[in-house]
Amino acid sequence: MDLLQLEFDIRYINAVSRKDLKEHCLIRLIISALATPMELENLVKRDFRVMNRNGEPVYTVRLNSGGKTRVAPIDGRTYEIAMEICKDKGGKQRIFDYTREEMDRIVEKYSPAKRKYNAMKLRDAVLEILRDCLFFEHDYVSDLLSGVNLDGVIDFLHDSHPMFSGMWDLDDDEVAEDFITNYIAMTGIRDAKRVAEEICESEERVLRLMRRDFIRVL
Known about the structure:
There is one protein chain. Helix content is 58%, strand content 11%. It is mainly alpha-helical. The chain has two domains: 3-165, hpI Integrase, Chain A; 173-217. A hairpin with a 2-residue loop joins strand 1 (48-53) and strand 2.
């Protein structure tokens, strides 16, 4: 599949899943840490950590699967959301109570209408985007999946993973405007109210960004 299409699909799933914070957290962990369903099943509150690296916070999650453990960096927003949904849990309590089939249905529910994803297909899409960003001789993506070379992986993700730079979120107006423009082009939906409902934004903001894009084209 075309990389631009893959990137739109990832951004779409991330945006529309904000309707449910717990499901959004699940999806963000797949996108940010490349977590598998088995790793998500085993995830507990104490697996989240904040490291100090050169005076800056680095957010990580310990992921366990089949007796193997890896530590993966996650972006700050994903960490904040994870802490919010498990604020009333004990350290050893599981974060998610979904089966793997339920995880697949959650991802499928937020997928674009004509391109259905499950948890592993979404993970594979992010992997393809990241592998396209490997301009180095060293394979940092393999390091991430193996849980080795954490410092190198941290640098790579902050340089190359759009979730870490905020490019797959909608906080910045220019980023949000770009996504809305692509959303309209991909879906054919031009009604600001419907767009706002779908991507969990205010109608006022969507209208403002749509007008700004229209003025720019003129």
